[in-house]
Amino acid sequence: MSSPGSLSPERAAALVEAIGVNRTVNYVALISVTIIFFDYLHTFPREVNLMWKSKLTITKSLYFVLRYYIMVHSLLWVTYHADHTLTGPRCNFPFSRNSASSQVVLVLCEAISYVRVYAFSGRNRKVLAFLVVHFIAVNAVSFYYIARLVTSVSFLSLPAGWGLGCFPAKADGFALTMVGVTLIVSYTSASIAMVVIGIRRHSSLSGKNKLIRVLYQDGISYFFCLSALSVANISVFHLAPENGVQLIVVQPQVHFSALIATRMLLHLREWSAKQQIVIASEPGGSIEYPVDLGSPKFSSRDSYAMSERAYPANE
Fold first, then answer.
1. Are 290 and 306 a contacting pair, CB within 8 Å?
2. pLDDT digit string, tens, across residues 247-306
């Protein structure tokens, strides 16, 4: 069996650098995993109060799937990098599994953002048709490049006895870039749709109803944050040295996207509950649904009803 001492000085130096980079990438991802579990403990009481007792809806289903699947993804990542006996071709399957899992998390985040746009549109059927077609098209392209990426990756074949784990030697950089680009296109399109709808319904945003403003403002902030993470991921991949550090932003993007999405839904539920209490406490206060949720003309009271139908506080 080879030993580190039998390597040439050049290869030994390259291996030492790779080990340092690999540990840095792992530490950054581990910090992201730690933050996810800390956030879960911090927001768990709010989840119980706002989510557990409500009836099951699409929004609530997406919340719980994302909320708990990100933990499954974190455990998959930890077990993959904690197994130092993996090396060479043995790394291909767990890497492919984790790459597909990362994409599942990002798709769930996208789905939440698209449901948000649909809710903000007043459940407009034309908006729904656009969002469905766009969502399918964007993710078909994204999964194609994910498959292309995982089939292009090769790992250094180091002796298992060294206990160094998996070291990626090469990957299709264009495929990884395109995965990030498709995410940016998706978030940008949803953001533009949100802005256009907001312009058409500016009277609701400037009215007394705070819930509809929260729905809009959080949506724009959400799209900006997720797009910024995608841009950072692409930038680091192209500007960082080709020694493995290019992947340093991948897991932070996956984990923080999930964190932002779930916190956004909790925030909206909180405001929905507050608004319901305020309206119910007003003399003669009641909640009325508009006849045509797709109509471009509706009052602030109608916009609240629209938001309640998409994100009911007492589901």
1. yes
2. 777 888 899 989 988 988 887 777 666 655 444 444 444 433 333 323 333 333 444 344
Give the residue from 89, 244, 92, 87 showing the smallest Cα distance to 161.
87
Q: What is the maximum alpha-carbon separation in the chain?
A: 85
- C-alpha atoms less than 13 angstroms from C-alpha of 277 in its C-beta half-sphere: 6
pLDDT at position 136 over 90: yes
Distance CA 126, CA 279 (A): 31
Give the pLDDT of residue 202: 63
Q: Assign domain 7-279+287-310 to its CATH architecture.
A: Up-down Bundle (1.20)
Query: How many whole angstroms separate alpha carbon 156 and alpha carbon 265?
Result: 42
- The two structure tokens encoding residue 284: 């003669």
Question: CB within 8 A of 7, min separation 6: which ones?
Answer: 15
What 3-state class would DSSP assign to 10?
Answer: helix
Q: Is residue 125 classed exposed, middle or buried when 0-12, 13-18 and 19+ CB atoms within 10 A define those classes?
A: exposed
HSE, side-chain direction, 13 A CA sphere, residue 73: 28
How many of the other CB atoms lie within 10 Å of CB of 47?
Answer: 17
Q: How many CB atoms lie within 10 A of CB 64?
A: 14
